Amino acid sequence: MPEPAAEQVPATGPIASGVHRNAGIDLLRGLAIVFVLLNHLGLPMRIPLKASALADMLPVRLLQALNYNGYEAVFVFFVISGFLIAGNALQRWGSLARIELKAFYARRFARIVPCLLALLAVLAVLHGLGTQDYAIHRSGQSLGGAVLAALGLHLNWYEGRTGYLPGSWDVLWSLSIEEVFYLGFPLACLLVRRTRVLVPLLLALALSLPWTRAALEGNGIWQEKAYLPGMAAIATGVLGALWLAGSRLSPRSCRVLRWAGALGLAGATLGGHWLWPLLHEGVMLLLTGSTLALLAAFRIEPPRVPAPLRWLCSWGRLSYEIYLSHMFVVFAITRMYRWSGADARTGFLWYLPAFVLCWALGALVMRCWSMPCERWLRDRWLRPATIPVDVAYPAR
C-alpha cells in the first residue's frame, strides 16, 4: 500500500513538532499561493507587471500569465485538499466507508474555524470603523449578510447575487465550496459504502468540470464561484487518493507522472492563451489532472527540492494563513505605492516587500493563533492516537 497522504505525528504532541512533511506537496501548495498573491497584486487597478520595466525584458503574455492565474491556483488547492483529506481518512480508518463523523468534522473544524473567526472579527471591526478597502458598501450587501454567508458556507452564492465583496471578504468564496463538500463527503461515503460505487460518482463529478463551467458562461461572478466546478476539482483529488491506496507505482511511472504533470500545469497556467482556442474549458481539466499527476508522483517519491526553491515549501506550509491574511498586505502595499507617486515602470519592485510581509504575517498568524487553537481543540475533542496531520488549504 502506498504511503498515506500525510505523515504520522502523535496526537498528544505539538502539531508542528516531529512532522515529516512531503516537500513536493508543500512546493506545489507554495507555488499556488504565490500565484494567488501575484494575481491580487497585479490587477489593473493595482500594480500590474505588464506596465513595469519587466515588459522590456519579458513577453507581455508571460507577465499577464503570472498576474492572472490566481483563480486557477485556487483549483490547484482544491485538488490538493481532496487528495490529502481522503488520503488521511484512508490512513486513519482503512476505508472511506469507516469514517468516524465526529473525528472527521472535529479535525476540519479545528483547522479551519479559528482563523476564519479571527478574520471575520477583524473585518467586522474595520467595517464598523468605515475603513477604506474593508467597509461593505455595495447595494444589497451588509455586514450581517456577509458574516452569515461566510459562516453559513455560501459566501460564493452571496457574491453571485449581490456582487463582489471587498477583497479580504472575497477570498472566503473558496472556503465555502470546500467546506460544503466536506460536510457531505463523509455522509456520502457512509451511505454508499462500496468503493466501486463511489468511484464512478466521483469520476463523473471530476470530469464534469469543463461542462459545468461552460453551462454557467455569461453568469459573471457565479461562473467563477459556483459550487460544482470547485467540487469537481476536489473530487479529482479524492480519486487520486483512492487510486494510490489500491495500486503501486514503479519509479518509471512516477517520473512519467512528474514530467507530464509539470508540463500540463505549466501549459494550463503560463500557456493558457495558446491552449484555450483548442481546449476551451478543457484547460481547467488539464489543470486539475496535471495537479493530480504531480501529487501522485510526489506522494510515492518525495522530491529533493533545490535550495533556491525551498522558500516555496515554507509558503506551502503557511498557505492557509497567508491565503486568509494576504489582502491586508496587498491593500497596504497598493496604497503606499499610490501615495509615493512611484513610476509604474518600477512597480515590480513593490512585489518583494509585499511577499516578505505576506509570509511574515502568515507565520505570525500560524504561530500565535491557528496552531495553538488547533492543538487545543484536537487535545479536547480527539482521543489520543497516532494520526496523520492534515493541513490542506484554505482550500485549506
What does this structure look like?
- By secondary structure, this protein is mainly alpha-helical.
- It has one domain (about 10-390).
- The protein is about 70% helix and about 0% strand.
- The longest helix has about 30 residues, at about 350-380.
- It is globular, with a radius of gyration of 20 Å.
Helix count?
18
Q: List the uncertain runs.
A: 1-18, 385-396
Give the neighbour order of strands across the main sheet: 1-2
Oligomeric form of this entry?
single chain
Please state the average pLDDT score: 91
Could you say which structural class the secondary elements and strand pairing correspond to? mainly alpha
**What is the helix fraction of residues, given as a range?**
55-70%
Strand percentage, roughly? under 5%
Whole-number total of structural domains: 1
Radius of gyration using CA atoms only: 20 Å
Question: Gap between N and C termini, in Å?
Answer: 26 Å
Q: TL;DR?
A:
The protein has one domain (8-388). The protein is built from 18 helices and two strands. The protein has helices at 23-41, 60-67, 70-93, 101-128, 143-151, 155-162, 167-170, 173-192, 195-207, 209-215, 221-225, 227-245, 251-269, 272-279, 282-300, 310-317, 319-340, 351-381; strands at residues 8-10, 386-388.
